[in-house]
Structure formats: structure tokens, C-alpha cells
User: What shape does this take?
Amino acid sequence: MTSARTNAEGGMETSYGFQSVGEGEKQEKVNEVFHKVAKRYDIMNDLMSAGLHRIWKSAMIAALNPRQDAGYHLLDVAGGTGDIAFRAIEASNRLARATVLDINGSMLAVGAERAEKNGLRGNLTFVEANAEALPFEANTFDAYTIAFGIRNVPRIDVALTEAYRVLKRGGRLLVLEFSDVDLPLLDRAYEAWSFNAIPRIGKVVTGDAEPYQYLVESIRKFPNQQNFAEMIRRAGFSRVTFTNYTGGIAALHSGWKI
Ligand SMILES: C[S@@+](CC[C@H](N)C(=O)[O-])C[C@H]1O[C@@H](n2cnc3c(N)ncnc32)[C@H](O)[C@@H]1O
Assistant: This one.
């Protein structure tokens, strides 16, 4: 059991939070987490991030700047309850199409229900599948987004190679993920909040602290900004950059298939 960050050489495949698990065991454990939290996922996001996730997601969509045209097709992987896809469609003036892909049917069910309520169902397709084996032909999508999802995928290198494959030439990858905080004071406050408050809030709201212990530990294990940028380059992407949000609590990584 170790809390050290993994790096560009790998390590996330066999780390379930701070626990080491065997090759092939992580995904099932992650799936249990999201089956348990699906119904309370959206409210917990607001509570855990004090609403900041909304600002970061809006900034991601501003960076994506989807075309206002019905031919534009976004793939939002680990799309869960649909936040990114909904925002992208709204930003396209309800013209673009989005495919929301997630390995977890419970998360997708909440997303589909929300889409219906928001009147966005016609712009959306929901697909239950694994980010490591996308059920799409090469060169299909204009953009690939993944928000707070990639650290849950065991073989990140495989998922990034799949992202590259399904993007059209000129297509863009955007990854929003919790990252390495670069301000020492903020880091200490954030650490205290993450490890003390979040599992307790989870216990009160959902009756179970364990899924939230996993979520905060997995954040600490994920490669830092430079290492993750290197993984994106290794998958074939060009012009790889990142932007820190809120002192690096989250970071947006960008890459292009050219
Ligand atoms: C923290 S949620 C993020 C949901 C959404 N993108 C958001 O920002 O609110 C992580 C999602 O990753 C999904 N996930 C985990 N492993 C996956 C995999 N191998 N392939 C696709 N989705 C996966 C989970 O089912 C879960 O819905």
C-alpha cells in the first residue's frame, strides 16, 4: 500500500486508491464504486467540490468551443451522468451531437433521465462500453472529452491510444482531471478537506464512506501534470498543453490529432 503518485511509466493499472490490486482487478472495484454512488453522484459532486466542478467544467467547454453545426460529433468518455455532453450541446446552440460513453449502466441511466428532462435526448446517444476498447470506427469524432474519468480507467495508455484512433485528423482531446496542487498552503488545506471531510460527507449523504475514500486516494495516485502530458504525447497526440485550475486542484490537458 503506497500513497506515492504514479508517473508516465504507469502504475494506475494496479492501484485501487492506495491499495495494490492484481492486474485485471481494478475495473470491477471501480464499477462497484460507481454503481453505489450513481443516484447521489451529482449532489455529491457539488458538496465535495463546493460547486467548483461546475466552474472547471464550464472552462473545459469554453476551451472545446464546439462548432455550432449538426455535423459536429463529440465523444464524451466516462461521461457518467452527462454533465460535459449537456454543456457541449448547449454551447453549440443545441446543434451538435454527442455520444456519452461509460462502462457503468447505473451512471448512464441517471444521465439519460436528466437528458430527457432537459430536452436534449435528440442530440445524444448513450453507449455502455469500456474506454479501453471503444466500439467505434477510426476517424469518427471531432472531439474526445473525458472529465474526472481517466484516473478510474485501469490502462490509461490503452484508453489514450483508443482516443487517438477514433478522432478525426484535426480532432481534439481534452482531459479534465484532479491534479497536483502547486501552492503549499492550498495543498495542505485541500489534503485535510479531501481525507477528513469528503469520506464523512459521503457517509452522511450516501450511508457509505468507502467509495469516497477510493475517490480521494485515486486523486493522490494520478500522475502529475507533466507526467500525464507525457502519456498523452506517447499516445500520438501533438501540441500537448495543460492549464491548471484553482492552483492545480484540477487541470485541463489538451492534445490534437494532426
Ligand atoms: C467521477 S465519474 C465522472 C463522470 C462525469 N464525466 C463527470 O465529470 O461528472 C467517473 C466515471 O468513469 C466511469 N468509468 C470508469 N472506468 C471506465 C472505463 N474503463 N470506461 C469507461 N468509463 C469508465 C465510471 O463509471 C464513472 O461514471
Remarks:
- The pocket of S-adenosylmethionine is lined by residues 27, 30, 34, 77-81, 83-84, 102-104, 107, 130-132, 147-149, 152-153 (CB under 6 Å).
- The chain has a mean pLDDT of 96.
- Residues 184-206 form the longest helix (23 residues).
- Strands lie at 15-16, 19-20, 73-77, 97-102, 124-128, 141-147, 167-178, 238-245, 250-256.
